[in-house]
């Protein structure tokens, strides 16, 4: 394993649509794999603050400030919404206010959204996405008795702000391994929504996982928009174009971390007789992409739903110390889906890599 990782680390990366071509010429299914999975490691106990006695959250008024795409994006925002829905069902939360950012809105608009929720007595307020960092930083001090959480950002240092962050690179590593095992051409791809440090974590893990499983895999990796232009998370037509380009160059498995733009990736995969890997939610079961679900071989699960639910529960219990510092593989904060049965035959391999990461035998990079 150490030898395979060393070889993988030497592989050449090239950005902006060019592939990582380590003399790959393709081959039959399975021939792309050049490394044995790690030896079985002891399973580490997972933990979640959702366990235990039922908590009464009926007195809470929860605010959900969605990122671009909102409820119905079949990805990141839908996962956050699922956490709030579970809080309604399991804890009796009765009042939830939802508001969604637009792709072109100003910072003032985000601050106004949070200000309005706090002024109306919503507490806690969950800001869904790193794009809210500046707004939370500005608004939270004005409402010291209101609890705020922000997903995917830990830069806001305030006593009433809780970061909910994830080890996206760890789950994406498993997606990269799965892609290699399922690729017939030994050529896979990655489509990121916006070129930010957060989405680069998905890319880094995916590249590392693919290269850990194969020293000859060819990898294309592209972004839809540069940093600062968040429209890349809600542009399925751009996702379709990028994925089609990769498929035309020979990629037969495409992993996306592009929010609602992923629907375009799935449509390109279906049209091009390729397979795709979803992100954040179990996208095989998402209604908004059900017409193309047959190409979704797995999804990298980012348990935003668990983080949101656990946070609301912790607020209801008035004990935020139960939350993990980072939602990683050890606490099942990230992982992979098995819906559709397309990775059942390699589940033992994926679980072996997962156990090695949890045990610290594999260190997954968070930068490409």
TrEMBL record:
Domain named ABC transporter substrate-binding protein PnrA-like: residues: 65-366
Matches recorded under Gene3D superfamilies: 3.40.50.2300
Transmembrane residue ranges: none
Location of this chain's protein in the cell: Cell membrane
Topology within the bilayer: Lipid-anchor
Pfam family, one: Bmp
Record region (Disordered): 1-53, 87-112
Biased composition regions of type Low complexity, renumbered to the chain: 16-26, 37-51
Ranges annotated as biased composition (Basic and acidic residues): 87-97
Keywords: Cell membrane, Lipoprotein, Membrane, Signal
InterPro entries: BMP_lipoprotein, Peripla_BP_I, PnrA-like
Presence of the UniProt keyword Signal in the record: yes
Main location: membrane
Recorded family membership: Belongs to the BMP lipoprotein family.
Protein name (Swiss-Prot/TrEMBL): BMP family ABC transporter substrate-binding protein
Native source organism of the sequence: Amycolatopsis minnesotensis
Organism taxonomic ancestry: Bacteria, Bacillati, Actinomycetota, Actinomycetes, Pseudonocardiales
């Amino acid at each position: 394993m150490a030898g395979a990782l060393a070889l993988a680390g030497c592989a050449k990366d090239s950005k902006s649509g060019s592939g990582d071509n380590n003399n790959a010429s393709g081959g039959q299914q399975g021939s792309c794999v050049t490394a044995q999975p790690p030896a079985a490691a002891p399973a580490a106990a997972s933990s979640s603050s959702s366990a235990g006695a039922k908590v009464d959250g009926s007195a809470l008024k929860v605010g959900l400030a969605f990122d671009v795409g909102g409820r119905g994006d079949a990805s990141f925002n839908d996962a956050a919404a699922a956490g709030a829905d579970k809080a309604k069902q399991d804890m009796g939360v009765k009042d939830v206010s939802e508001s969604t950012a637009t792709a072109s809105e100003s910072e003032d608009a985000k601050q106004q959204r949070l200000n309005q929720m706090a002024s109306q007595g919503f507490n806690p307020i969950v800001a869904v996405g790193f794009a809210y960092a500046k707004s939370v930083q500005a608004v939270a001090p004005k409402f010291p008795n209101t609890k705020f959480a922000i997903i995917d950002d830990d830069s806001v240092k305030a006593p009433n702000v809780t970061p909910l962050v994830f080890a996206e690179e760890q789950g994406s590593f498993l997606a990269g391994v799965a892609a290699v095992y399922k690729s017939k051409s030994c050529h896979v791809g990655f489509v990121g929504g916006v070129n930010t440090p957060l989405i680069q974590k998905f890319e880094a893990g995916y590249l590392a996982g693919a290269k850990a499983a194969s020293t000859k895999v060819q990898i294309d990796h592209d972004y839809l928009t540069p940093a600062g232009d968040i429209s890349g998370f809600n542009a399925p037509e751009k996702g379709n174009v990028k994925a089609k380009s990769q498929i035309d160059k020979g990629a037969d498995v495409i992993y996306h971390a592009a929010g609602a733009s992923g629907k375009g990736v799935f449509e390109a995969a279906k049209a091009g007789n390729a397979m795709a890997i979803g992100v954040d939610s179990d996208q095989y079961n998402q209604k908004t992409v059900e017409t193309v679900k047959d190409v979704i071989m797995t999804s990298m699960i980012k348990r935003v739903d668990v983080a949101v639910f656990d946070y609301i529960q912790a607020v209801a219990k008035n004990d935020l110390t139960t939350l993990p510092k980072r939602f990683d593989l050890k606490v099942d904060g990230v992982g992979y889906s098995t819906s559709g049965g397309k990775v059942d035959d390699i589940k033992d391999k994926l679980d072996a890599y997962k156990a090695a990461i949890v045990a610290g035998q594999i260190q997954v990079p968070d930068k490409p």
